[in-house]
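Researcher: Let's do a round of design. I'm pasting the structure tokens now; please hold your answer until I've finished.
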């Protein structure tokens, strides 16, 4: 009976506590081009920021996708089209650590490779009609992330420790 109570407590508290992750990424496209950046995940919030000043930072907060140009933080755009890939990745992240090796939905295939000595994902392969790419995840850490870093306005720079 005590095992049942422990199981229930572990189940309840594991779902109540939110997972907060920071990772560096490297996107490799089928044409051999590469983009680098980092992302933060907390609850159902996401910040996906490219290092290049010519690219952007994508925010997912309150069920909205917004992107801010890195070279002009005053330019904020709402994204409503072609969000299927990022929505699928957010759905997969919400299942952590119970992540499958493959997810297939409509015209999207996502393959996941985990690290050999841990539970973190090391590579995400995405195949869709719009893109074929791999995202390599590096230096992933579970840490406490302040909510202000998921705000697009005002935009707060994320400082690495």
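Researcher: That's everything. Go ahead.
Model: Designed sequence:
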């Amino acid at each position: 009976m005590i095992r049942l109570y422990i199981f229930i407590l572990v189940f309840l508290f594991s779902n109540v506590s939110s997972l907060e992750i920071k990772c560096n990424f490297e996107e490799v496209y089928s044409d051999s081009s590469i983009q680098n950046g980092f992302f933060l995940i907390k609850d159902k919030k996401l910040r996906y920021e490219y290092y290049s000043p010519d690219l952007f930072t994508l925010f997912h907060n309150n069920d909205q996708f917004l992107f801010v140009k890195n070279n002009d933080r005053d330019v904020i755009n709402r994204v409503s089209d072609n969000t299927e890939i990022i929505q699928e990745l957010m759905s997969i992240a919400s299942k952590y650590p119970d992540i499958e090796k493959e997810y297939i939905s409509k015209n999207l295939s996502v393959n996941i490779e985990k690290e050999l000595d841990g539970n973190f994902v090391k590579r995400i392969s995405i195949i869709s009609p719009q893109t074929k790419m791999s995202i390599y995840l590096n230096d992933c850490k579970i840490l406490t992330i302040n909510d202000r870093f998921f705000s697009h306005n005002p935009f707060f720079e994320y400082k690495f420790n």
